[in-house]
Amino acid sequence: MGEHIGSIIELTVDKIAHGGIAVGRLDGRVVFVSDAIPGETVRARVSDDRKKSFWRADAVEVLQPSEHRRDHVWSAAAIDRDPRGRAGGAEFGHIALAHQRELKRQVLAESLQRMAGIESDVVVEPLPGDPAVNGLGWRTRIRLHVDDQGRLGPMASRSHSVIPVQDVPLATAAVQAATPFAERFLGLGTLDVIAPTTSDPRLVIGEQKPTVIRELVGEREFQLDDTGFWQVHRSAPVALTRAVQEAIDPALFDPRAENLDLYGGVGLLAAAVADRFGAETRITSVESDERATDHASENLAEWLGASAETGRVDRWLRELDAGASAADRDRLRAATIVLDPPRSGAGSEVMTVLGRLAPAQLVYVACDPVALARDVALAAEAGYRLARIRAFDLFPHTHHVEAVATLIRG
Ligand SMILES: C[S@@+](CC[C@H](N)C(=O)[O-])C[C@H]1O[C@@H](n2cnc3c(N)ncnc32)[C@H](O)[C@@H]1O
């Protein structure tokens, strides 16, 4: 093993796998090929032959292009570059935008089918305005790294080397204009460029101390740290607010129940729930980052029944489960629980406790289709069924997709 690395193979790829990599076969062996589109015949350079069952390779030449192939939206990531020198973060940039959504749909539908036994007719919806600008200019935040000459760039898509760039076309015009491409940052690890909705763009250099910024979602303002989590697409906070509001079955919603917003960040989705169901709404937002919880407390201050607590969701739920009185359990059974976990998903411990608490409905916001499908399958073991699912292209030109699923008992 190792003797095939660097060799050029020719193959046709026929499907897309989780992670946005195309899959083909060579002499019966599965090969995961980056920068290829299902249906294409490509020449690819083998990058990993350590496993018996599959190899990895990077497309270097397209022999029979897909009708969906386009010039890459980012020259720094294009196929004419050596694979090790291609910028990461836009791995679908060579695919027509509508077809990117179709490939994301396939991955989501296939994950639900394979892991949870669910046939779904989910579609991936573009965010308003994106198709008209070919899915560019959406990132309100970028993280760039510094190379050994102090230049700025993303990591290469398949290595840990920094690829110096002169543009970041997925970023908003404000972020692009504020990015100091010509400057040198020798010795500094990272540079974040952030364009908040209420103030000028700002740079966060290395491990700089956090500064409080404000973001507008519709008419509502949220405070947060410039180093903290916020949805990246300029339209994502509004889109997810509406999607979560619509995902809640009002017939199952009880404003006086023990409603929860798990993995709550600075309270965006707790506010979405309280905004929809009014001043009486009780909801607790749970988040592990203490500073984010402090901001959430401020952001939720107008609702008397809304609060924010710092805690790891698994531990917090375990303690809730262990200490709940009969009356608490009734309020939890009547609850709507929104959860928006990181990429790894909620996982079995959290889903098991949720199953025991048996809330009326779960609204699961997911940024990873496989983690979602696994957790939907775990919820099914606890008696929940997938009542509704929508998916959104919150990350055009990447393989990422966001889904909002409603799970109800019975
Ligand atoms: C995908 S973000 C969602 C934040 C929020 N719902 C929003 O839309 O702005 C996930 C959040 O979960 C937090 N988090 C990650 N792991 C956690 C854990 N085990 N327990 C609690 N919070 C966690 C992160 O700090 C982050 O704020």
From TrEMBL:
Occurrences of domain TRAM (ranges): 2-61
InterPro entries with a match to the protein in the record: MeTrfase_TrmA_CS, NA-bd_OB-fold, SAM-dependent_MTases_sf, TRAM_dom, U5_MeTrfase_fam
Residues bound to S-adenosyl-L-methionine: 231, 263, 287, 340
Any GO BP annotation: methylation
Pfam family, one: TRAM
Residues the record marks as active site: 367 (nucleophile)
GO molecular function: methyltransferase activity
Superkingdom classification of source: Bacteria
UniProt key word Iron: no
Keywords: Methyltransferase, S-adenosyl-L-methionine, Transferase
Family: Belongs to the class I-like SAM-binding methyltransferase superfamily. RNA M5U methyltransferase family.
PANTHER family in the record: RNA M5U METHYLTRANSFERASE, TRNA (URACIL(54)-C(5))-METHYLTRANSFERASE
The protein, known as: Class I SAM-dependent RNA methyltransferase
